Amino acid sequence: APTAPPPPLGCDDPESEAAAEFAVNYINGHSHHGYKFALNRIEQVRVLPQGPNNEILFLELDLLETTCHILNPIPLANCSVRIFEEHAVEGDCDVKLQKLNGQFSVLASKCHSHADSAEDVRERCPDCPLLAKLNDTDVLATVSSALNDYNSKTPDAYLRLLEIGRAVKQYHPVRMVSVEFAVAATNCTSQQAKDNLGACQLLPEDQSNFGFCTATVVTEPSQDFTVKCQLYGHQPGVTYPHSGQDTS
Amino acid sequence: SVAKRAAAEVAQHDKVPRPVGFVPPPPPCPGKIRHFKI
Lengths: 248, 38
Description:
The complex is a heterodimer of chains A (about 250) and B (about 40). Chain A has 4 helices and 9 strands.
């Protein structure tokens, strides 16, 4: 008599969780933009046995954006999921993996991310700032001011903008714009950049310094402007096009 | 009838109380939410 098929794999079974962890690391490792994502829930898992010690797994994963930019070298385990009040972003991923002799490999993956709805945020947190479009005029102006301010006060390598990661705007009880953006060091000092910006190029990959900046501009009820930048150091295997947008 | 008696026995059998401390297994999917659902 044929043996009974094994019970279906549950979403919280250790094998499912191991596969999901592998898939999330793969997804983050193959992304060069935005933020790292962390596992929030395994929505579905299906297993197709292929033979002895060989199976195909299909995973549906629900991820949440963390506060770590994808260039940030710290491990995902040390990254905090962005809290609901910061207007969370969710990622939905379909992943096809193979488990051969106990080793996972990703055969295919497809992800879509979307921000929580403004209505959802408003309902639970009426005064929380909402995500703004990255090409919003106020956002671009804030990034430009922040980078110029940082470069003018820092004699070291002149930093260029790689990408704007996120931006939020708030109108009440304070009027403010808050932005986050990734930067890369160039082969110029700030003074050299002031003299001939066109000659400043991103450092070659083996010397490159990436970093991440946050800036907030408050205009009401009183004016305030803060900029903070953190340089990560060299990130092997990560390249950005040298034609990156520059706000200067 | 035989059919009715059999059905009644099955119904009675289903009413056997669960042992004390019995926790029904969770549904296999979806899994637990680790942070929050949006």
